Every structure is written in structure tokens, then in C-alpha cells.
Amino acid sequence: FQVQPEKMKTIWNTEEVPEGSEFDDTWDPREEPEYEILFKQCVGTEDVFFGMSGKNRSTACCEDMVIKIKLPETKYSDITLDIQDKLLDLRTPQKKLLLHLCYRVDSKNAKARFLSEEETLEVTLRVSR
């Protein structure tokens, strides 16, 4: 029995599939590392004292997103990091983190640094608005 191409119906459209779903592996036994997401905002004296720019304390007024990921007993050379516009994918031999970001970021200009004393990877992403 062969299905005719005109009778085939797809159950979803490719635009409906979220970005990064190809990385989602529920059978991977590695645990998710502890992490925190912080937001940075550039403010000057006109913001602090006079409130002239209209910025407030919400994340909607922040320019950068900083993600701090705890990676105990990990070497810098063991870290694989992939950043896309709405996704952060981190892999080490012991840990795996697939993080769907709440804002679109400039993935081409992301910065990462490994703080070996604190065993933490710090990723700074510029929020695209």
C-alpha cells in the first residue's frame, strides 16, 4: 500500500517546532547543572538621580543577560557551548544544560569565561530588541 503525495497530511508545520528541539534528548543520563540568570542594565547619573531615560528595574529595560553555570570538577577544555538566538546548549562529560532563553539574543557576539576558582562558567549575552 502506497500513500499518494497529495493525500499525505503533515501534523505540524516546521514553523511550529520550537528552535533547539533537535537538541532535546530526554534519555541523556547527565544531570542538569545549577545555574542562575541575571540581567544587566547600563545606567548613568541621569537615570539614577533624575529618571530621564525612562528606564525602570524590569528585565524589559536590560541590555545584557548573564548566565552563571556551576560546573564542579570540570576543566575548561571539557566544555562544549552552543548559543543560538533563543537557545543555550552546554555539554560536559558529567553535565548537560539545554536552556530556552526568554529573550532573543545576539548569538554572534556572546562572551563566555570560565572562573576556575569558583568552578563557574559565566556567559554574557546581548539582548536583541
From TrEMBL:
It holds the Pfam family PIH1_CS. One of its GO terms (biological process) is axonemal dynein complex assembly. One of its GO terms (cellular component) is cytoplasm. GO terms for molecular function: dynein intermediate chain binding; protein-folding chaperone binding. This is PIHD3 protein. It comes from the Eukaryota. Residues 32-127 form the PIH1D1/2/3 CS-like domain. Belongs to the PIH1 family. The gene is Pih1d3. Coiled coil: none annotated. The lineage of its organism: Eukaryota, Metazoa, Chordata, Craniata, Vertebrata.
